[in-house]
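User: quick one, sequence for these tokens?
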């Protein structure tokens, strides 16, 4: 039976159910180098728990490298957009909060958290990691900050960012700090510096901007879509309508091994 996150974890902060479609269509895929770094310290035979999986941007890379992925998400609307929702051999899905899962004690060799740890209540989540991980298992948590404005677009991007800045939830600061200051439950393993990179056209870039939680909150508060407001200036700075641009995000990774 699927659990209701409202009853299993009443402090769940849902910033993405209202934009679940946009999030699923617009978010970039993670680079192979990220999953290679995780696979270097976790065996291919591993069972994985992926809490806060959203619509599955990270699940695909995990599923190609490990035996089984149990992907969980507190938002049923987000999980309904998951690419494995129709059935995928080595992926199982469940509506569960990050702080509690139905997985058995010591049942996974990897807990993988993509762009989601800052939403969790960390103390109970870390306890759950301690419970479900085998001895020697790994907690991998990663995220990406704001994108680097492409050449010639700094002014247009800065104006857009200034418009939505007041509407970011406070947890966003943890991403900007790359999860610094966390009281991690396990010792650290070496982790590489990484970049998330995509070649996008203007339409995909604007859809990505529309998938930001701050954009949705700004529109709800002001009655005006900030992407529509700043779209003409962004388009003028972009170049030709058919041009593609390299969009880059700094990507950070924490790897922690349970003794």
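Assistant:
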């Amino acid at each position: 039976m699927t659990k209701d996150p409202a009853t299993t974890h009443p402090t769940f902060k849902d910033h993405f159910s209202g934009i679940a479609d946009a999030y699923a269509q617009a978010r970039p895929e993670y680079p192979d180098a990220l999953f290679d770094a995780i696979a270097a310290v976790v065996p291919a035979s591993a069972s994985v728990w992926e809490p806060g999986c959203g619509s599955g941007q990270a699940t695909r890379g995990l599923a190609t490298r490990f035996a089984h992925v149990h992907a969980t998400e507190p938002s049923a609307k987000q999980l309904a957009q998951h690419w494995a929702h129709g059935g995928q051999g080595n992926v199982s899905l469940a509506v569960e909060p990050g702080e509690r899962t139905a997985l058995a004690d010591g049942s996974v060799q990897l807990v993988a958290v993509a762009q989601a740890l800052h939403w969790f209540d960390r103390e109970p989540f870390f306890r759950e990691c301690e419970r479900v991980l085998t001895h020697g298992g790994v907690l991998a948590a990663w995220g990406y900050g704001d994108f680097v404005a492409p050449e010639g677009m700094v002014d247009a991007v800065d104006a857009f960012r200034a418009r939505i800045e007041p509407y970011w939830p406070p947890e966003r600061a943890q991403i900007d700090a790359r999860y610094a200051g966390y009281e991690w439950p396990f010792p650290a393993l070496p982790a590489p510096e990484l970049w998330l990179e995509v070649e996008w056209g203007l339409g995909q870039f604007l859809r990505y901007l529309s998938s930001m939680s701050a954009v949705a909150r700004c529109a709800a508060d002001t009655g005006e879509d900030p992407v529509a407001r700043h779209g003409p200036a962004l388009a003028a700075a972009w170049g030709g309508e058919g041009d593609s641009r390299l969009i880059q995000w700094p990507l950070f990774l924490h790897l922690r091994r349970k003794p």
